[in-house]
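Let us work through a complete example step by step.
Step 1: write down the sequence.
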Amino acid sequence: MSGNSVTKTVVPKPSVPPFTHFLAPKFWLTWLGIALLVLIAYLPFRLRMFTGHCLGIILYSLARERRYITQTNIAICFPERSAQQQAKLVRDCFIENGIGLIETAVGWVRNPRHFQHLLKVINAEAMQTALAKGKGVILLGAHYTTLDFSANLASLQYPFAVTYRPHKNPLFDAFMLKGRLKNCNGVFDRYDIRGTLRHLKKNNIIWYAPDQDYGPEHAVFAPFFGRQAATITAASRLAGFYDSPVLLVRHHRMSGSQPYEVEFIPFPESFPGDDEVADATYMNKQLEVAIRVQPAQYLWMHKRFKTQANGKPDSPYILVKTPVHKIDRQSFNTMIEGTKVIEEQHIKNLTRQLDNDVLFRILPSSDTRFFAAPPMKLFDLNSRLLRAKGIGSVTVDSLFIIKKADFMAATYFPLPGTGLQKISPEEIDLKALAAFLDQVHQGGFYFNEIRPAKLLYDEARFYIANPEELRVFPSSICFADRCDNIQLLLNKLELSQIQRAQFIELYTELSGLKNEPAFTQLFSRLLASR
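Step 2: predict the structure and record it as tokens.
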């Protein structure tokens, strides 16, 4: 297909603010980064690839949270791979992203015609057929590392518009917008539906990537690599306005004289249908097939499974830091206005019930003990560490630092179950309790204080509602600490001598410590002390 088969339609483009607006010192570091990208963009091809490879290794070493997100996504989407294969794929993802960042800079800075010979187009006939219908074309892409570079090369033959989300850094956003406007015949904010539709109505091409999690609004839950993911329905709605044909576009960096491949894969004419979930399921399935061509070139650093039907407690990204918000006292008073206190241990240690059933916890911002971490920090951190090891605990949604106050606050989700203090000793499932306590100890957690009211039991599972009262060790805790916790728990539950003996026998058997002389000796003293 020749480059003259599609006419470049002139459409209003968003204006790029003058770069002279960004001369303040706060932008100097960004300017330095942009200067480096521009410099690298003019390096020879092999040197650019090497620089991107090194950048990826650096990012892999430093970006711990992004590495964790990538590891989580890879574990979810490629369970058939061994731990070693998954670890290699994670590392390769960062290398590909490093190379992709350099390629993006090249696409924004240099004329894509210099690299047109590197592009290989597969199934160009599908694009020709789609444009012949005169209803515009929707290209469904995905966030591959070659996104901007491949798009710039493809735009030479098939001029199209793109949707984008503005960057938080205004200088980098201006740099990005200018680079994209240079090569596209339209750039629309992802919320500018009217502008997108006007462009589509003129038989133009819209490049749209529906593979990120923007929350539950305007989304349905559909499987993506075997796990439910919030999938935006904008693609189906856009296609439905003018009955526009939809093509999946796959673009990867391969080997050979034309390493950059762009392939057009037509969707059936029945897409979109009447069922948004069915449409989303089909779309995700096609994206899966394309991603598997070069899985390391997909943007696995994005929290694709962040939004879940049951909310944040089901999010797989447990160890991602909890958002922290700084508010003044007036905003704090507004938040708690009309709420009721459901538990109060102290004026700075209480829990409120918010209108949306989320709980609001208040704890001191510092500890009276020397070198001890603030209780609220432990409440948040320990809860995440517990859940990461499969132990039930609270899920903190947000943390709040109240200005000029000696306490902090957190919103978190209520736990299921009944406190052990409300269950009679005869009705307690001793085996489940022993297994739970062993799991806690094996995970390296020690109860500074055991409160039966804060150990909740529901459907054979226990939950810890007061994670701030745990001490965390790098490995399983010692025999003496285990014995101390068990003695404290048995005393608090007021179990009979027979029940105590049953519990200890169950614990030693489940923990694999039945033949440990040092441990059994401690337990024999524990039984004798009753």
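Step 3: interpret the result. The two ends are 88 Å apart (CA to CA).
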